[in-house]
Amino acid sequence: MKIKLEELKNRILNGGGIDREEALEISEAPLEELCAAANEIREKLNGNKIDVCTILNGKSGFCPEDCKYCAQAGRHKTNIGHYPLMTVDAIVKDGLRNAAAPGVDRFSVVTSG
Question: How confident is the model at residue 2 (pLDDT cuts 50, 70, 90)?
């Protein structure tokens, strides 16, 4: 795997990509080697920085899906409030407030369903 992982890392560093089968294969690589390769790719492509994105839950609950992993799924008994899609004005107001926080690079609205 080490040779394959090195080959894939170099391909990505040279502007290429990997396919689904290769991605599944490297998921079985030793974690330390995989993290080292990913870190080298990150440093070359993004430098030593991170981008911070703040999100707003634009709609909570009322999702017709029932995903096992989602806290908003009907199967989970949580204390999460339910509300319909927020108005554009409310989203913009909240977005401006959140996006003004120090270090925030992006703002996104997420919804369920």
Answer: low
